[in-house]
Amino acid sequence: MKQISDYFGAYVFNDEVMQQRLPKDVYRKLKATMDQGSALDLCIANVVANAMKDWAVELGATHYTHWFQPMTGITAEKHESFINPKDRSHVILEFSGKELIKGEPDASSFPNGGLRATFEARGYTMWDPTSYAFIKDHTLCIPTAFCSYDGSALDKKTPLLRSMEVINTQAMRIIHLFPDEGITHVSTTVGTEQEYFLVDKKLYEQRPDLILTGRTLFGAMPTRGQEMEDHYFGMISPRVSAFMKDVDEELWKLGIFAKTEHKEVAPAQFELAPVFTTSNIAADQNQLTMEILQKVADRHGFACLLHEKPFEGINGSGKHNNWSLTTDNGINLLEPGKTPEKNARFLLFLSAIIKGVDEYQGLLRVSVASAGNDHRLGANEAPPAVISMFLGEDLEAILTAIEQGSTYENTHEQSMTIGGGVLPDVLKDTTDRNRTSPFAFTGNKFEFRMLGSSLSVSCPNYILNTVVAEELSLFADELEGSKELEKDLYALIQKTIREHKRIIFNGNGYTNEWLEEAKRRGLLNLPTTADAIPYYITANNIALFTKHGIFNEAELMARDAILYETYYKKLNIEAQTMVRMVAQDILPIVYSYEEQLLQLQAMKQTMLAKSEVHPLIKKLDQLSTKLYQANDSLQQHLHQCDSDDMKVMAMYFKDTILPIMDTLRSYVDQLEEIVPKNAWPYPDYFDLLYHL
Ligand code: ADP
Ligand code: MG
Description:
Blueprint: H1 4-7, H2 15-21, H3 24-36, H4 42-58, E1 63-67, E2 79-81, E3 83-87, E4 90-93, H5 97-101, E5 102-103, E6 123-127, E7 134-136, E8 139-148, H6 157-175, E9 186-200, H7 201-204, H8 208-213, H9 238-253, E10 258-263, E11 269-274, E12 277-278, H10 279-299, E13 302-305, E14 319-327, H11 340-359, H12 361-367, E15 389-390, H13 393-404, E16 407-409, E17 415-417, H14 427-430, E18 439-441, E19 446-448, H15 458-479, H16 485-500, H17 512-521, H18 529-532, H19 539-547, H20 553-608, H21 615-640, H22 646-672, H23 685-689
Parallel strand pairs: 1-8, 15-18
Antiparallel strand pairs: 1-2, 3-4, 5-6, 6-8, 7-8, 9-11, 9-12, 9-13, 9-14, 10-11, 14-19, 16-17, 18-19
């Protein structure tokens, strides 16, 4: 039997391979580029490229590609073979440093929000040496950033890399306020918990809505949903188990530490969590994980659904983004320490995060906004659309004591003065797990729980990094040069808690009382994507992004336009698909069933000479008429709005189209319950959810 250790990372051009295959000085220079971002000259790149090619070819690769993450939220690749003609009948395999460093895909058809007119189709992909190259589908994949001719970011990786640099700079200023511990670099770390559904592929293929939109646009609830709460952590069927084993192997070969897998709350729902790593690598790995889940599912006769809400009435899928800050010598800055200085440092970082989350609620909400996620947030299965933070009882008690300048008594009955920065070491054990909080402290990291399952984690992370970097920079401005650091620091923390404690909420986020309370506290409640997007390019946020060099104004405007465009286009596809399904499949079947019943009644009438219409026929007739009218209305309304302004389109879809879609669906779902199962044109929820 093959051992995991034999093939873990076998398809990754990692440190070990580099050390084996690169001359010592080349390896050293490459490492300096990877760790400190120093420039790499072409001679070095040539050596690296050649070694990469030899390694890849030995493992069966024939092509290479610059692998990037355009603003579509998924990955893109354009394959080139290594082949070059040597003479008329021979080839040599070549891969140069230039080809490694820079690519020029024809980029005109990726969304750019107006950043690059199509006649200037040129976009560049630039090697990101901080994320390892890997082999996938016989192709050497080079992780790259994607930008336009003038250097504008056209992807999701560039801002993430920029934000990591910025938070490093600002966090180091804070670190330097304290006694030297040999820290030279701070990285953000991310661990993603990915939820998904599996359905049988043959059934999936019979549902145009699943194929075209990723979710069921119609479907009556089965008689058993998730009320028994017996699916969570339940036994995994042999077929799913074989699938998971295969997924693990594929991920391990790519050096992804897939670690936990279990069933989720809903039937047919599962979760996969890897071990955390540096943010940009975590983002790359999560993209790969989503891709591999789908590919391997296909091999096992499943379809893997990554949509946030594939089934109405059944829990949707999210992606928890566990986030922390780690130093180059392995210190987790969100680990509450045992000594006063470390506690003070921890409390300072914590305060920066609290302030950032409060001041930039709108921005954090936009970072997870999508048409799909609108079905989850606030639907009693996922955090509400209101951002708040959970800190746990202990930490909140400590902050309250600091705020009031009083003495903190912890659950272990030690009482201590906070002024000296002493923090008892009990936080981790007593941190209560609050599943309803959008942004929860879980002992030594924050868990951002609002992300939808299909989202690229890049956007929420570059936003989080930038926001925290901003607060750290303001703190550093205030504390650098302080004559009485301890006193000033304490005052700063106290002030921050006083001004921003409204964002802290340890209770149940699913209740209506919380929404009322949140309103009183002045917290934002932005239920839909269309409501949230206006918070993206407020003057305050433009100032934030430009100050730290994450985006210039044009780049921001482009992203804003793309958010609106993607939102309305998704809804448009859904609405068009509904219209077709109703007109071509559902109505004809309903009419023919009605026809059958009428014939039956006519037969019975001759026998029984009754003149009444059967109530079932009446019901069918009423519903089918309403359905026809609603479908007609949807079709007409889809033609009625045509604007070049993406915001106008988004608002029209939210206010006008979505309500008609909901009405249409309710008629179809009522009909599904009375039309014979074998006549219904699609597999129903029972078939889809209970056949694994
Ligand atoms: P849960 O109970 O929510 O499933 P786990 O303890 O299993 O939480 O961890 C969830 C994720 O958090 C994992 O992917 C794990 O690697 C990640 N994680 C743990 N520590 C950190 C950290 N310091 N930074 C980022 N992610 C982390
Ligand atoms: Mg979690």
